[in-house]
């Protein structure tokens, strides 16, 4: 199994759980129709932020600092952001990693120079002199790269949403300007019509006056 496949399989476990099971705590408190989980300490806050894998509890940000931090030996506990639950599933079993090149050989190190797993034969044949680290460290390197890439994607999505909102705001302002212009034209049209009607009435009045004068002189 390639290291990339192994890493992604660990991450995807959190996304392939039974829909009726919470992918955060693997408990059945998130079944459809049920209320969201609350902090295991205050039992009020629903904005869960942290999980202690040692205590197996979900916590809000306040209780993490006010309660969990005061527990005995809590400084040695593994507290992770719930966003990392999909990545963290306890200590992975690196013994299942087999070399893709040398059949029957297990991978024993991670080559940072080539960004790949290597077995003992690989080290002697093609990776001699390369920078080699323990597989667990290589896993953490990959995980940090993944998280960094994920953060960049989230930032880009955030920027796109911001641009979309700004464009929507501009469109709304343009729409408002359009409506104002239409109203202004209609108002001006009313003024022109009123002025034309007034001038027409004035001409008719003057014509009627002259006609009456002519009629009188004719008599």
Provide an overview of this structure.
It is a single chain. This protein is mainly α. The chain has a domain of 76 residues. The chain is built from 4 helices and 6 strands. Strands 2-1-3 form a 3-stranded antiparallel sheet. Strand 1 and strand 2 form a beta hairpin. It is elongated and about 135 Å long. It starts with a helix and ends with a helix. About 11% of the residues have low confidence.
Helix content: 40-55%
The CA-CA distance between the termini, in Å, is 122 Å
Note the beta-strand portion: 5-15%
- Biggest sheet descriptor: 3 strands, antiparallel
Summarize this structure briefly.
The protein is mainly alpha-helical. The protein is built from four helices and six strands. It is elongated, with a radius of gyration of 38 Å.
How is this fold's topology laid out?
Layout: H1 3-12, E1 50-52, E2 57-59, H2 61-66, E3 79-81, E4 109-111, E5 116-118, H3 120-125, E6 132-133, H4 135-218
Antiparallel strand pairs: 1-2, 1-3, 4-5, 4-6
What key attributes describe this structure?
mainly alpha; zinc-finger; three-stranded antiparallel β-sheet; metal-binding; Znf_B-box; zinc
């Amino acid at each position: 199994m390639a290291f990339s496949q192994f890493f992604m399989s660990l991450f995807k476990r959190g996304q392939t759980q039974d829909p009726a099971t919470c992918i955060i705590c693997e408990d059945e408190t998130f079944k459809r129709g049920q209320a969201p989980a609350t902090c295991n300490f205050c039992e009020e806050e629903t904005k869960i932020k942290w999980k202690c894998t040692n205590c197996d509890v979900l916590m809000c940000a306040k209780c993490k600092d006010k309660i969990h931090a005061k527990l005995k030996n809590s400084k040695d506990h593994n507290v992770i952001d719930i966003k990392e639950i999909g990545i963290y599933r306890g200590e992975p079993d690196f013994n299942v990693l087999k070399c893709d090149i040398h059949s029957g050989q297990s991978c024993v190190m991670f080559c940072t120079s080539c960004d790949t797993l290597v077995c003992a034969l690989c080290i002697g044949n093609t990776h001699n002199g390369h920078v080699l680290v323990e597989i667990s460290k290589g896993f953490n390197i990959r995980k940090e790269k993944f998280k960094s890439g994920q953060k960049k994607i989230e930032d880009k999505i955030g920027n796109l949403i911001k641009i979309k909102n700004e464009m929507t705001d501009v469109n709304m302002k343009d729409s408002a300007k359009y409506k104002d212009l239409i109203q202004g034209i209609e108002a001006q049209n009313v003024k022109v019509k009123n002025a034309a009607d007034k001038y027409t009435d004035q001409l008719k009045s003057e014509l009627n006056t002259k006609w009456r004068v002519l009629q009188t002189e004719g008599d």
